[in-house]
């Protein structure tokens, strides 16, 4: 329990479990650990009108708000202005189009302060989206970022390289890395069920985990594997949605259907931990906008090394050559080279996995993240 004053904390996020996604899982663990420290915590998220496969946790309330219009992962929820008045502080997980604007307005109208965690840049993949962002960022995003009392960054390096940098005073930045549940994600035996289900016996298993958004770089991984002729290397893709059909078409064009397997989404509460234990290493080939890479910590906790793009966020987690490898952003040849290094050297990848597991247990726990958040919120409220 927290020895100080209990705070009423609102966690505001666009997507939340059971929807899959790193931002939602981060918010879940933030809310859970802050509740365990003795604070009253409520989550405000969009109602995506999907059935809940698992009940919401008893430790905190989850409010699913009906947006005026739901588009992708965003939608306007003006009811936030009224609902947030009840709280001492708001923790806004950004980006949240349709929610962040009302957190900003709630702060203007009622004075409720907010702490903003900047998860990632948004990159438009069409001319229209790029045009809208070009107007939105200086007119609205800049205001939202400037009004935040403090800004959380998974690494200073990522924030400095992001679109947020011009709008954020470095003196207001708090470095808060993501964490991992080391009881859930831990070393163990490979799952025979998963091996049999996907025909993985005797193969080196490369794992990709994430929503299939273009910036995650699955297209780069497919291109890299297309240049590897060894049939004893297989890729298991855990995730779905977004550009999935495009990726399936790419796999068919390359005639890789038997070596790149789409396993669909799997949750931490389901058999996602077993997929990590069954894999030999993880690949996160992001092309841009990756602030951290929660999946890297999950792999590390499972004693598996990772190959990640040398972007400012993910590359800050990996000690190149010790617990993983770095590949050039968007370069299939570079990624192929790194994959072959781990594919051909079982002893190396097992040594890297042990080093990675040790690092996670020493540095990345959700309990430590919550204490940093608690101290930051108290700092804001004491001003």
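Sequence proposed for the structure above (383 residues):
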């Amino acid at each position: 329990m927290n020895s100080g004053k209990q705070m009423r904390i609102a966690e505001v996020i666009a997507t939340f479990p059971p929807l899959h996604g790193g931002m939602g899982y981060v918010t879940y663990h933030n809310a859970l650990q802050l509740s365990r420290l003795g604070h009253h915590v409520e989550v405000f998220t969009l109602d995506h009108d999907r059935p809940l496969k698992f009940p919401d946790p008893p430790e905190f309330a989850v409010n699913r708000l009906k947006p005026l219009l739901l588009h992708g992962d965003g939608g306007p929820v003006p009811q936030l202005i009224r609902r947030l008045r009840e709280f001492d502080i708001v923790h806004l997980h950004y980006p949240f189009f349709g929610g962040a604007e009302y957190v900003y307005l709630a702060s203007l109208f009622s004075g409720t302060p907010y702490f903003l965690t900047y998860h990632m840049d948004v990159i438009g993949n069409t001319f229209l989206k790029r045009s809208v962002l070009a107007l939105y960022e200086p007119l609205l995003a800049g205001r939202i970022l400037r009004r935040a009392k403090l800004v959380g960054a998974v690494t200073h390096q990522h924030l400095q390289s992001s679109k947020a940098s011009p709008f954020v005073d470095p003196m207001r930045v708090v470095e808060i890395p993501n964490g991992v549940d080391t009881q859930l994600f831990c070393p163990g035996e490979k799952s025979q069920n998963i091996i049999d289900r996907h025909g993985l016996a005797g193969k080196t298993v490369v794992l990709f985990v994430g929503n299939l958004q273009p910036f995650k770089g699955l297209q780069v991984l497919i291109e890299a594997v297309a240049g590897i002729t060894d049939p004893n290397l297989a890729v298991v893709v855990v995730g779905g949605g977004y550009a999935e059909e495009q990726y399936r078409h790419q796999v068919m064009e390359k005639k890789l259907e038997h070596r790149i397997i789409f396993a669909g989404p799997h949750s931490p509460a389901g058999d996602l931990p077993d997929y990590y234990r069954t894999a030999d290493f993880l690949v996160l080939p992001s092309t841009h906008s990756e602030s951290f890479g929660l999946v890297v910590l999950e792999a590390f906790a499972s004693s598996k090394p990772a190959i990640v793009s040398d972007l400012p966020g993910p590359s800050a987690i990996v000690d190149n050559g010790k617990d993983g490898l770095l590949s050039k952003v968007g370069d299939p040849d570079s990624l192929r080279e790194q994959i072959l290094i781990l594919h051909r050297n079982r002893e190396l990848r097992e040594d890297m996995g042990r080093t990675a597991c040790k690092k996670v247990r020493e540095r990345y726990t959700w309990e430590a993240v919550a204490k940093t958040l608690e101290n930051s919120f108290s700092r804001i409220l004491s001003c």
